[in-house]
Structure formats: C-alpha cells, structure tokens
Amino acid sequence: MRINGITDIFFDLDHTLWDFDRNSALTFEKIFSLNKVSLDLEEFLFHYEPINLDYWKLYREDKVDKATLRYRRLSDSFDRLDYKVSDDLIKKLSIDYIAYLGTFNHLFEETLDILDYLYPNYRLHIITNGFSEVQYNKIKNSKIDHYFKTITDSEKVGVKKPHPNIFEFALDLAEASKDSSIMIGDNLEADVLGALNFGLDAICFNIKNENVGAEVKQIRNLLQLKNYL
Q1: Do 130 and 189 belong together in one domain?
Q2: Is the pTM of this model over 0.90?
Q3: Distance (Å, rounded) from C-alpha 158 to C-alpha 164?
Q4: Which CATH number goes with the domain that contains 133?
Q5: 59: domain CATH number?
Q6: CB-based contacts of 128: which residues, under 8 Å, 6+ apart?
Q7: CB 3.0-4.6 Å disulfide test: which of 38, 63, 74, 83 passes with 58?
Q8: What does each of the 229 residues of the chain score in pLDDT, given as a tens digit?
Q9: Of the residues 101, 123, 143, which one is the last residue of a structural domain?
C-alpha cells in the first residue's frame, strides 16, 4: 500500500542500515586478539548480545549512564562466562571497542539499493540513539553520508528515542512536517512506537520476524519499502 505525500524519510542506523551485530562481532574478534583475551567468540557473543540490548534499554530510560553501559555490558558478560578479568582490562576493552567499531562497516545487503532507489525522490535523514563519536564515523566510513540531509543523534539532543523531543528536534533540523515524514527502524519501542506516539508515521524493519502487531506497518527486508514508497 503506497503512502502518499511523503517528502522526508527518517532512518534508524544500527540494526536498520548498518549491520551492527556483524560489525560488533568483528570488533570483538579484533580487540580480544589485541588484548590477549582467550575466549570463544561465539560463546561470548551468545551472552553479550542480550545483555547489551538490556543495557541499551536501561540507557534509553535514563536508568544508567554511558559509562555504566559501556562497562557493565562487558563485566556482566564475563561474569556470565565465569571468566576472570581485571577492572583495568574491562575499561581498556571498552575503550578499544569504541575505537575499532567504526572501522568495520558492513551494511545490510539491501541498504545501498534502497538508498539509491529513495534518494532521487525523497529527502533522507538519520535519527540514532548511538554515541556521537561513533555514529558519525559509521556513516562516513561506510560511505553512505552523502545520502542524508541531516543526522540527529541522542547526545546532541539530550534525550533518546522514544522521547518525543528527539523526533521534534529531527523534524525541525530537517525543516520537515509530521504529515509528510515517516520513520523507519528495527526497534519497536524506540523507533516505531516512539514515532507513532509523537504523531509521525512509521515502518518497522522486522528483520527478526518478531510479533509487532498486525496494526504496525512492517517489512522483513529493506527492498520491501518499495511497497510503501
């Protein structure tokens, strides 16, 4: 079903355009090697990935700060594996992770194709909850920066999705209106419901085929956006 009257499209970055899980795994492989951490990477990621998502939810809700998120997602994962590491090493790994994450820049398979398809007819933007110093490197190093008119990150705004102020800030920065804009992201709470509650239309990039509700517009791969736009 085509959505008429759209001029501006706002994308989430991680897990929507930028393949966070793949790039994160490569980053851990790199920093574990550099710091001589002898762990099975697959086993570590099995524990780390859900822990990381839990801490990001707490971060969105302002229940932990950035430093706590960065430290505890690692320390909790090592504790789960009963792998003994010093505080200094956890802090070093936390710093190295941020330093190297933007050097791996795999996009989802359809990212460039859908951006090429949308770019001639729409103004494209980013709204991200990620850290400023990392997100801009991801966008630049993956060579997609030229597609986007504006980039709004939560640290710049002072609030995180799903807070309405970040969507309002992004619209003002883009000089766009709610009625002519749409949000596309993978996170039901932060991207989709956050946008809808603000009065902005949204499409869920439901790559993990979760139950998001029949009333929510959803796609399973990015090229399915052609059904709407």
Answers
A1: yes
A2: yes
A3: 12
A4: 3.40.50.1000
A5: 1.10.150.240
A6: 12, 13, 14, 135, 151, 152, 153, 154
A7: 63
A8: 778 899 999 999 999 999 999 999 999 999 999 999 999 999 999 999 999 999 999 998 999 999 999 999 999 999 999 999 999 999 999 999 999 998 999 999 999 999 999 999 999 999 999 888 889 999 999 999 999 999 999 999 999 999 999 999 999 999 999 999 999 999 999 999 999 999 999 999 999 888 888 889 999 999 999 999 9
A9: 101
